[in-house]
Each structure stands twice: as C-alpha cells, then as structure tokens.
Amino acid sequence: EKGGYDHFMLKEIHEQPKAIIDTYRGRMLPDEGIIRMSGIDNHMNKFLNAERIIIVACGTSWHAGLVGEYLIEDKARIPVEVEYASEFRYRNPIITSKDVVIAISQSGETADTLAAIKLAKSKGAFVFGICNVVGSSIARETDAGAYTHAGPEIGVASTKAFTTQITVLTLIALKLASKKGEISKSELRTFLQKMQLIPKKVEDLLKIDEKVKEIAAVYKDAPNCLYLGRGFNFPVALEGALKLKEISYIHAEGYPAAEMKHGPIALIDENMPIFVIATNKGHYEKVVSNIQEIKSRAGKIIAIVTEGDTQVKDIADHVIEIPETEEALTPLLTTIPFQLLSYHIAVMLNKNVDQPRNLAKSVTVE
Ligand code: F6R
C-alpha cells in the first residue's frame, strides 16, 4: 500500500511529478496557449466583474492560498485577500455579491472552511472550491470548482495536496490574466511550456534526497529553526516551517526574509539553523543581504538556490540547488527540499511521520 516506501508521506512526496501532471492534464494546451477549466469558463463573468477575490483556507491550504494571492495579483491584476477560514467566519467580514470567494481544502471537510463558505454564500458571494477529495462537503457546498487530481493523501502532513493546489491556482491566475488581456497569447504559451517542464524538474529534485539527508543529520537536534523567503517563496517558508513543526516537533517559524530585522534577528546565534530561499529571480540581491546579516551573527545558513549560483554558495553553510524556471513557478520546486528535510528529520528522531501526535487528517471540528 505504501508502494515500497517506508511511509505514506515519502510516497506522496514522490508522487508529486505525477500528481502535478494529473492536475493540469486536459486543462492546459501549452502549444496552443489555451487553458480550459469548466468551473472558471462557465462563470467567467463572476471572475471578470469581481471587485476582489477572497481566498479562505486553513493550514497548508492557506499557504497555497497565499501563493495564489501573489499569482492572481501579479498575473491577472485582480485584488486578492487571503484569510484563515476560522478568523473570517467570526469577524463579521464585509462580503458582497461582487466578491468571489475561493475556498481551498484538501479534504473538503474542514469545519471552519465549510462554515466560511456558508457565510460567504449567505452574503451573496460566488464561491469557488479547490478540493482534492471528490464529492466532499466543500466540493458540494461551493457554486463551482476545480479538483486537484492529487489522488488520496494519507500522510497527515500535506505534501502533494499543496503542490497541486498551487498548480490549480497558477492555471486560474493565467486563465484570468489571458482573458483580461494582461498577458498575450505568446506569453501564455511560453509560460505553459515552462509549466509543462515542472514535473520533470520535481523528479530531478527528488534525487537530491541523500544531500537533504546529510543536512537533516546535522540539524536534527536543533530546538528552533527559522525559514525565510520573499515574494512567491514567502508562503513556501511558512509551509516549510509548518512541515517541520508537525512531524518532527521542532519549533520552527517562517518569515518574509525582510521581516527578520524587525524581531526574529534577536534569536540568531551559532545554534540557530536558518533555511533561506534565495532563487535567482525574486529579489535575489535583497535576500543575499539578508543572508549576510545572518552570517555576521553566526547563524547557520541552509540556502535553496538556483543551479549555477555562486554568490550564496560562498556564504551559506549548505546549499540545495533547484533547476531554473519562471519565478512564479519556483514554489513548486522550492517546496520539495523542505518536505524531504522534515521527513528525514522526523525519521531520524523516531517520530510517527504519517500520524503525528495531536493531529488529524480532516479537522471536522472547529
Ligand atoms: C498540514 C495540514 C493541515 C491542513 C489543514 C487544512 O500539513 O495537513 O494544516 O492543511 O488542516 O486541511 P484541508 O486542506 O483538508 O482543509
């Protein structure tokens, strides 16, 4: 049942190339520059007339929502807000029929997300779901939606659900961008062609497992870790920290790299491992100066860089290389080493990887 892997989580990490293909298959035609998503096509006016899009979700799905915000605002130029479903539903939010709400949920059963959807519907908003589990409560409650065809996710720590949610959000952002004339047909074609190369790049990245294991062995006894990223990779930093907390029970925090100097920098000393996403686009020089600030305080730096990087390599204690791609697609790659790292640390610490303490796969109570 675990397909030869020791844990479901590792199996699911390795399923990501296929899961991403299954998610975009039939939806994008790269060479023609076409994206077909019936849930969007059938309600295009709702999206085009939306004054804003509100994304509601919890946990990892909320992190995917943040990537979605960056994608939809950057590509389609529609204002987006991302909210924890649990906050949204209880804070008397302003919602009108001009809002489109996108609810993201792997299980489709998360109580707070479901309640947020019901609230949004009662105020007249159009609600679109991004779910993995077919026929789930959230899939049924929403006005339209798109499934992430990730297949069953058994490990409590979400992995392939996250990357396939991002895949769907990327398609939505590009589809809206193209419909609004924010990107040309040829730009769309080029982007989709790069997207089609992602599964193979994820597959290549999964081969760095041994290197990640070595890094895991060095830092597995750290009591605290920081994860930093900027732009599209800020949510990946949050997600990296969540994965480590969940399965290894090591305290970790994700931050936008530039926020470090507003507080967390006080934590940095020679015992603090700091995982930094420093890919070559996305404010590279700014991240390099953040890394220098860490270095001058003796923090240990583990950096995710783009293949061929030299600048960060000179400063960091360890580097993990990811293949070159479009900046907006980098979260699909930078996430992978963090998933593997958490996995290996949890295994080395003898934790229950697939069923961490206190956590449930579907949170059906608020
Ligand atoms: C993290 C994790 C949780 C879920 C959250 C939302 O690994 O599994 O944070 O992401 O409970 O669950 P869904 O997506 O099913 O609504």
From TrEMBL:
Catalytic-site annotation from UniProt: 361
Limits of the SIS domain: 43-182, 215-356
Catalysed transformations (reactions): D-fructose 6-phosphate + L-glutamine = D-glucosamine 6-phosphate + L-glutamate
Keywords of the record: Aminotransferase, Cytoplasm, Glutamine amidotransferase, Repeat, Transferase
Localization of this protein: Cytoplasm
Gene Ontology molecular-function annotations: glutamine-fructose-6-phosphate transaminase (isomerizing) activity
EC number from the UniProt entry: 2.6.1.16
Transmembrane segments: none
Oligomeric form and interacting partners: Homodimer.
Function description: Catalyzes the first step in hexosamine metabolism, converting fructose-6P into glucosamine-6P using glutamine as a nitrogen source.
Protein name, as recorded: Glutamine--fructose-6-phosphate aminotransferase [isomerizing]
